Every structure is written in structure tokens, then in C-alpha cells.
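Input record (Table S2, row 228):
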Amino acid sequence: MITFKNVSKQYPDGTTAVKNINLEIKEGEFFVLIGPSGCGKTTTLKMINRLHDITEGELYIKDKLVSAHNIHKLRWNIGYVLQQIALFPHMTIAENIAIVPEMKHWKKNKIKTRIDELLTLVGLDPKQYRNRKPSELSGGQQQRVGVARALAADPPVILMDEPFSALDPLSREQLQQDIISLKEKIKKTFVFVTHDMSEAMTLGDRICLMKDGEIVQVGTPEEFIQKP
Ligand code: ADP
Ligand code: ADP
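Output record (adenosine-5'-diphosphate complex):
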């Protein structure tokens, strides 16, 4: 689904954030990028939707080489959940979720139905929440809306960059459970960044451990436990 071929990333200031990585992320899997702060996880994630350019190498999504020409079209197929909760404060929950469907010119009724379906999916009662403003929701609830928004137009790929890091431990645990049930309900390819090994073990079908911009190990949670 997503293939990195000899991909490197150097920032304009000379920092080499990612060094010659090769990766094959399979369709429908929950793929976790883990490693200490500064090891290149976010850079790797952002190269997938070209929020960061690639310095060397090639990236393929569904066998299509990602280039400056087709990235705008490809981005429609990639949902993105950020670390910071990033809802538009002046818009209602429903309006926040509707952003991408509206850009895609979906019919009003279809959007309405989709909003209610998504709120239900992430555990928020549509009647109670759709017309509220983000500030009337807790951090955990806002982040659930962030997940709903990323899923809105049903993209096959969802990128998540430490989506729980701004949350208190309880909300974090609840949202983790939500993501677990979500990944069973919807067939999507998830790429998930965290520095928390237990989170990686709980959520990941496969885990990719990075260090200093390089890949140390890729494997299932079981394979990580077995490694001495
Ligand atoms: P996040 O992980 O929240 O997406 P950033 O991508 O903003 O964070 O930054 C990740 C790391 O890169 C941080 O350690 C930050 O200090 C560093 N960083 C971000 N921007 C720059 C920059 N322009 N120059 C040097 N280091 C940077
Ligand atoms: P992680 O997500 O694992 O914390 P990052 O991918 O954010 O790591 O960062 C990898 C390396 O690239 C770090 O050394 C970081 O400081 C550097 N870096 C990140 N963003 C920038 C930037 N915009 N400019 C320069 N260096 C950056």
C-alpha cells in the first residue's frame, strides 16, 4: 500500500532526519512507527502525504509513484490526525467533520448522514454533539472528533501522529480502546506514530523501531517480545 524505496530526508539546515529507509506498509494493517524523540518518526509520516518533501529515493502509494504532480489527488486518499487537537474553534463539530466531504462536493444529505455515522463510530452521540463548538468538548472528545474528521471521506490510509499525547491518562486509555474497536470495524491502512512501547504493542499489527533516522527492526508485537 505504501512503499519507501531508499528514502532519505535532509532538512535545509543540513539535519539528516531519515537515512535511506526501505519499508513496505501493507494494505489494511495497523503500522506503528516507534522510537525516541528525534529519531525521524514524524518526518517519515509526513513524507507519506508530502507535508515534508523527500530528498532522495521514491515513495509509492498503491503502486503509484508519489510526485509533485499527483500529490494533491493522492492526499484526498489520506486522512491525517495530528498530535495537537486541531479543530476549527469557530465551527461546530458537524462543520469540522464536513470539511473534506464539502470540498469533494458531496450532497448535503449524504454529508449529514455521514456526520452522524462518524460521531457514533467514535463514541459521541450525534444529537448531543453535532451542533456544539469544540470548546464545549473535553480534550478526549475533541480528539475523537479529530479522528472522525480524518475518516470523513473514507480514505484508505489514515496517518496519526501521537494523537493521544495531549490527553490525560484516562482519556488516553479510552481513546486507545476506541482505536482498537475502530480498526476492527473499518478496513484501513493506519500508520501511527508513538514513543510509547506499550501503546505500540497494544495497537500495532506491525511495529517499526527507528533510531537516528534509521530502521532498527520491523516486526509483529510477538516478534518484539521474543527478541532478547
Ligand atoms: P512534532 O513531533 O510535534 O510534529 P515537529 O515536527 O515540529 O514536532 O518537530 C520535531 C522535532 O524537530 C523537534 O525536536 C523540534 O525541535 C525539531 N524541529 C522542528 N523544526 C525544526 C527546525 N526548523 N529546525 C531544527 N529542528 C526542528
Ligand atoms: P521524531 O518524530 O521521531 O521525534 P522528527 O522526525 O520530528 O523525529 O525529527 C527527526 C530529526 O529531524 C530530529 O533531529 C529533528 O530535530 C530534525 N528536524 C525535524 N524537523 C526539522 C526541521 N523542520 N528542520 C530541521 N530539522 C528538523
